Amino acid sequence: MNKKILFYIVFQLLVFVNIAFSQKKNKNNYKVADHISLDSGDTQMSGSRPEFRYQFLNVNHILYYENQAHKNHIKKLEEERNYVKLLPELRDYVLHFGIKNFYSEPELLWKVAQLSELMGLRDDAIYFYRLVLKHHRGKIDVAQVKINYDTLAQNVDDKYVPLKFYYELVEYRKAVDTLRPPRGVFLKLDDAVNSKSEDYAPTLNMEANTMIFSSRRKKSQNISNAQLNEDIYVSKSFDGVWDETKFMEEINTPYNEGSACISKDGKTLYFSRCMAPG
Predict the structure, then answer these.
(1) Measured between alpha carbons, how far is residue 73 from residues 78, 85, 115, 247 in Å?
(2) Which helix (H) or strand (E) holds 236?
(3) How far apart are CA 253 and CA 255, in angstroms?
(4) Which residues contact 80 (CB under 8 A, 6 or more apart)?
(5) Confidence grade of residue 76 (pLDDT, cut at 50, 70, 90)
(6) Rounded Cα distance, 206 and 265, in Å
(7) DSSP 28-76
(8) Alpha-carbon span 18 to 219, nearest angstrom
(9) Among 278, 275, 259, 250, which Cα is nearest to 137's?
(10) How far lies 10's CA from each of 2, 44, 138, in Å?
(11) What is the per-residue pLDDT across 197-249, written as a single tens digit (0 to 9) for each?
């Protein structure tokens, strides 16, 4: 038998044995379950749609995750080309991502996708390639990622319309919508609060001296091009005069935040975040 062929067969057997051992060793970290509790340590989900294959437990709790010791360990495994041990370690790291990690470190998601493809984990590879394409901000070779994704996802049904097409539908609806507010309805406060952009969805606290609303006045680098981003703004009233609107930096991200409402005690703000991971 050709020595190259024999070497290849032995190598594949070693990879298979190591993967099986690694998965068995880490079964507590990636346990399959039909129901995932938000306060559990489980990260892999079954019985759900492919786009929710894994659960990122930090997304709604911290903005940015970093563990330098873990990063150093991952770097060492990468330098040793120990891909069998590298994959679960790197995957565990990205599953701790906060909201900002997705668009500031897409290269880590890409590495997980590539390693998953190398190890024959097709569904995982498709999942992480999709995350890269959705959340990158031009920091990686998007064309190459798309080639990798398209190669694996040839027979995967696309259950969503493109984002550009969705925005076109919204514009068409606005063009045919004849609803207009009746005359006499107060539509604007003053220039300190309102802008020339779209301001909408206001909500007040119980004392009616704090107003939070959505606005599309700030451009953000979207997935494919620069668009007006939906963000949350706040204005306070002093002696009946509304103060200058402030951008809520602690909440807003390059994703779309809106539909805010304030709890009765005024201590909690509830809002939605669209197009974000998790």
Answers:
(1) 9, 11, 17, 39
(2) strand 226-238
(3) 5
(4) none
(5) very high
(6) 8
(7) TTS---SS--TTSS--B--SS-GGGSB--TTTTT-S----HHHHHHHHH
(8) 48
(9) 275
(10) 13, 31, 40
(11) 888 889 999 999 999 999 988 876 554 455 678 899 999 999 888 999 999 99
For 257-269, write each residue's pLDDT tens digit.
988 999 999 899 9
- Torsion of Cα atoms, 276 then 141 then 79 then 30, to 10°: 30
Longest dimension (CA), the chain: 90
For 100, half-sphere exposure in the C-beta direction (CA atoms, 13 angstrom radius) is: 11
Residue with tokens 């057997």: 13
* 141 — pLDDT class (breaks 50, 70, 90): confident
Alpha-carbon torsion 122, 128, 130, 136, what sign? negative
> CA-to-CA distance for 229 and 226, rounded, in angstroms?
9
Q: Which two tokens stand for residue 76?
A: 């060492």
